[in-house]
Amino acid sequence: MQALAKSDQHGKDDILLELDDVYMFFGRVGALAGISLKVKRGHIHSIIGPNGAGKTVMMNCINGLYHPQKGNIYFKGEDIGKLKPYRRAKLGIARTFQKVEVFGGMTVLDNIRLGRHVHLKSGIVGGALYVGKTAREEIEHREFIEQEIIDLLEIEYIRDKPVGMLPYGLQKRVELGRALALRPELLILDEPLAGLNLEEVEDMARFILDVNEEKRWKVTCILVEHDMGVVMDLSDRVFVLNFGNKIIDGTPEEVQSNPEVIKAYLGEEDMYATRR
Questions:
Q1: Half-sphere exposure of 6 (CA within 13 A, CB side)
Q2: Which member of 43, 72, 148, 199 has the lowest number of beta carbons within 10 Å of its beta carbon?
């Protein structure tokens, strides 16, 4: 995969998401220890670290599944630390999960349609009658899904198939499509490449770049991933966690050459062995 060099066209104050001194405890276990992070609009900001480093806990704090005991989380300058997940979704935060969370008995199209629920304005009566404004709203949402999302993810040929009958890689695409149906400003991708073969990895990486770069999308992404080749190719910045502590937040080049990052991934003995 060809590395991508991106120019930083964003001002220093153009911050979409900010974590400020966030602590998260489970009993006496500290999962996050004073984590601070700033994600610029239009960036792909990856979060990496060994298993148990606190990556998923951090994502759960951002989308509202967990509420930190200390610290603040800001989205578009608004403190969202106490908001429930559905409120954060309405603000423009969408997420995919490490383990695919789809409705297997429903079709691809219906799974993706569920992501539009936060944009529906018609009430129960309007939905039952299905005339006027309600019908027009339904047509607009359907056109967006069919002409934008299904086309982007190249899944026209399976749109009417039950998701539970599809291979795992296609189910991953459907979950991504459902997240995009929310039309998010921030998309959290929790290990989107896990369990995929090489061809599927390349496809998913291309979809992520398209969502981030294409003018019709321009979605800021937080990527949690173990595939370091993809992380270093796609990311504008990389944040490294280890046992709930920040090691470094820098460019891919800075992260790759950082001794503490090498130690966290390889172990101290292996690190010294590579130098001999």
A1: 20
A2: 199
Mean pLDDT of the 108-118 span: 85
CA distances to 112, 144, 236, 238, 256 from 251, rounded to whole Å, are 34, 35, 6, 6, 9
Per residue in 155-205, pLDDT (tens digit) is 999 999 999 999 999 999 999 999 999 999 999 999 999 999 999 999 999
Are residues 241 and 224 in contact, defined by beta-carbon separation less than 8 angstroms?
no
Count Cβ neighbours within 10 Å for each residue of 92-113 and write b for 16 or more, e otherwise: bbbbbbbebebeeebbbbebbb
> pTM for the whole thing?
0.84
Domain boundaries, the chain: 14-92+184-276, 105-183
Phi, psi of 8 (to 5 degrees): -85, 105
Q: Which fold has domain 14-92+184-276?
A: Rossmann fold (3.40.50)
- Chain centre to alpha carbon of residue 49: 16
